[in-house]
Amino acid sequence: MQMRISHMLLTSLLMLVYPLVQVMADDPATPSDSDFPPDPGVVYVPPVVVIMGDTIDMSDSTQVLPVEYDVLGDQTVIYNTEENTLTLTNASMEVGETEGTAISYSGSDSLTIILRDTSRIAADTIISSQSNVLITGDGAMEAVGQVPIIGVPEAKITFDSVAMHVKSVPSAAALRRYIRFIRRIKDVDETGGPALSGFGSADFNKVNVTPGDDDASYGPITGTGGGEGGEEDPMYALYVTGEDGEQEVLTEFWLTPEADETALPVNRQHHELDTSAPMYNILGLPVDASYQGIVIQNGRKYFYRINN
Fold this sequence. Notes:
Elements: H1 2-26, E1 48-51, E2 54-57, E3 68-70, E4 77-80, E5 85-89, E6 92-94, E7 101-106, E8 111-116, E9 118-122, E10 125-129, E11 133-137, E12 140-145, E13 149-150, E14 156-160, E15 163-168, H2 172-183, E16 196-197, E17 201-205, E18 207-210, E19 217-220, E20 236-241, E21 247-249, E22 252-257, E23 264-267, E24 279-281, E25 286-287, E26 293-297, E27 300-305
Parallel strand pairs: 5-8, 6-9, 7-10, 8-11, 9-12, 10-13, 11-14, 12-15, 13-16, 14-17, 23-27
Antiparallel strand pairs: 1-2, 1-7, 3-4, 4-5, 15-22, 18-22, 19-20, 20-21, 24-25, 24-26, 26-27
C-alpha cells in the first residue's frame, strides 16, 4: 500500500512539472546551446603547408590528398595529413637558383618536422612559420639560406634531440655559389644575417648548440627594435654574448643530440678523431681538417670544431 501511494505521488509530481519543462523548452527567451556561440577569440585555423611551391591547404575541401602525401614523388618528403607531420628522408631540396622558401607553414596546430637519414636544403628561406614548429628525429639536416629559419613572435620553435647545421649567406648570388661549390666539395666563406630569428621563443631539448657552447641564447637583441634605444619590439635571434657583454647574432650554428653517444663533441686534440684520415660530412662528401660541423669517420659521427 505504501509503495502504491508513493508511486501515485510521483506520478502527480511529474504531471505538475512536465508542463513547466515544456513551457521552458518552447520559450524563445530560454537560452539553449545555440545561443552560446564559440569564443570569438579562439578561431581554429586549418594547416596550410607550402613545400617547394606545392600548397597543401587542409581547409580546401576540393583538395583530396592521401594520408601520406608524397610531395616530391620520390618518398623523400612525406606530409601526413592526419598528424600534421612532415618527414624528410634523405631529401634534397634546392630552390636557391630561383630563390623562394622551401617550407612555409601556418595554422593553429603545431607542425612537426621529422628528420630521417640526412637531408639537405638550400633556399632563400629554409623554414618560415607563423605557428609553432617542432624539429625532431634521428636524422640530420644541412640547411643554407639568406634567412634560414624565421618565425613570428607568437610562435615557438623546438629542436628535440636532433642534428642540424644551419648557415646564413648574404645574398641569392652567394647562395647560388654555395650550391655550385658544395657540389665540387668546396665551401663559401660568406655569412649573412641571423640563422635563427623571429620566433617568440626557442627551446633546445637534449641538444648541444655550437658555436657558443653553454653561452648560446635565444632572445631579444638589444637595439634592434623601434622607439628610443631600439627597445620596442626588438628582433629575437640566436646569439652568444662576448667577453665585452655585447650580443653577437649567430649566422651559423650546429646542433648535436646530447643523448646520441655516437655524436661526440670533439676538437683537434680529441684522440678518437683522426683528422689526417678520410672523413666525410653528413652529405657523404669528403672533407678535410678545415671543415667544422658533423663529420663521419669509420661509421661514427663526430662533432668537429676548430679551437681558435
